[in-house]
Structures are given as structure tokens and as C-alpha cells.
Amino acid sequence: MKRLSAKAVRNIEGSLFIAPWVVGFFVFMAFPIFYSLYMSFHRVQVLATGIEANFVGFDLYKSILFENGSVLYNDLIPFLSEAVIMLPIIIIFSLLIAIILNQRFPGRLAFRMIFFLPVIFTTGRVILEFIAQGEGGLDFLSRYNVNSFIATRLPELWANAIITVLESFILILWYSGVQILLFLAGRQTIPSSIYEASRIDGANPWETFWKITLPGMIPFIFLNLIYTVVDLFTFPTNPIIAKVNSSNYGLSSALAWIYFMIILAFLGVTLLVFHRITRSYRVVNS
To answer: Source organism's superkingdom (predicted)?
Structure first.
């Protein structure tokens, strides 16, 4: 019997190690994804004799996009408005906290744990329960009647979006733990020798931030933007995801694919705006 070469043995071993992941991917990821695409073109009924699927083409997509606005637009437009407000809040808050946590001060490790712990504890159900109880808001809003002030001075769509964000402001910041961690890792990639050189040249902290820290963090801002957009669109309070259920498999599948395309479009617009801003910033500082 011919013995296998060392290279062939290594290939077999590697294939065996990766086989569980490949099987799991096709069974639990690829198959459900493509089956949902298949169902989105069919009216699906679950009968006692099995699943009956009748081909309807793009009818379900047309119904969601052009005929029944309550399925998508009534919830999507307010949510997109809230996402536009939450995105810069989370990114800026995370960046500032990461810069602070990178400083040397007593209890730094404890503060890092405090800011990351909500990511571990706040599962979707916990967040929903907090929101249902009215927790996570800012008390001074009702004390100083800020909501009425916003409602009387802004268009209804944006006023409602801002009020909704403010009423769960603390909970939104709780979701900044991963972004803080990424920014903290990114901040530590900037050599301390650059900061020492800037201090020797007489740069103050404000100039150091704009000339050294912020340019060095741009790749991590880019990374956090992608992460935060995806995270926001899978937020526990997301009203679109709540409509993707098992009551109507065909319609839910079509809605899920439309929503997926909207996420890609929103992500593309966000990255385009980010690219324009960073290009202008580089031109100004060059």
C-alpha cells in the first residue's frame, strides 16, 4: 500500500479540522439564506401534509415596496432618522472615552471593565425590558420640558427621532463598549514617540488631537462605522426585524431581503460621506 506524502497528510488533517465549520456553514447559514430567497418568490403555506409553495414572482416585493406602505415605510423612515442621529453619537462618544481610558490614572482597568460590562449583560431581552420600564433616559428632559421645546421647533419626523433617542440615551451609550474597545486598541497603535516629539515642538493637547490622534484613528473610525451601522440595524428595538416572523413566510422573507438591501445602501451612503469628510480633512491638514 502506497504511503501518503507529508503534504497530503497535512491537507487531510486541515480538511478534517475545517470540515465541522464548512458543514455548519452550509447547514445553518447558506441553506437558510438561499431558502429564504426562494420563499420570497412564493406564497408559502404550512399544511399538515407538508409545505406548499406557489410561485408568485416579484408580487410580494411589489406589495411591500409599492402597495402596502405600512409593512415597511411606517417603521423604516422613523428608524432611519433615529439611526442617522445615533450613529455620530456612538462614534464620537466611543472615541472620546477611548482616549480618556488610554490615559494613565488610578483605577484605569476598573473603568475599562465598567464601560465594557454592559455589552456582556445587556442582551436583547434585557434592553427591551429597560425600555419598556422607561429606563435609560435623561431625567432633565422632563424636568425642563425639553421634549416640548424640540417638538415645537423641528419637523415632526426629526423631532420624534431626537426625542426617541434622548429617551433611551443611556441605553444607546451602553452599546458603545465594542466601539470603545476598538478605538482603545487603535489609539495604542500610535507610537508614543510621536507625542513626545510634538510636545518638544510646542504642540498643545488640542493641536495634538487634531494633527496626530485623529488622523491615526481614521482607519478605526471606518471600522467602527461599519460595525455600528450593522449593530444599529440589528438593534433589539428594531421595528423591521420584529415584523420578520413566521406568520407569513413568503412576505417575511421578501421583507428580510429588502431590508438587507436597505442596510447595504445605508452602509454605502455612510461610507461615501465618511470618505468625503476624511478627504476634505486630509486636504486641509496637508
So the answer is: Bacteria
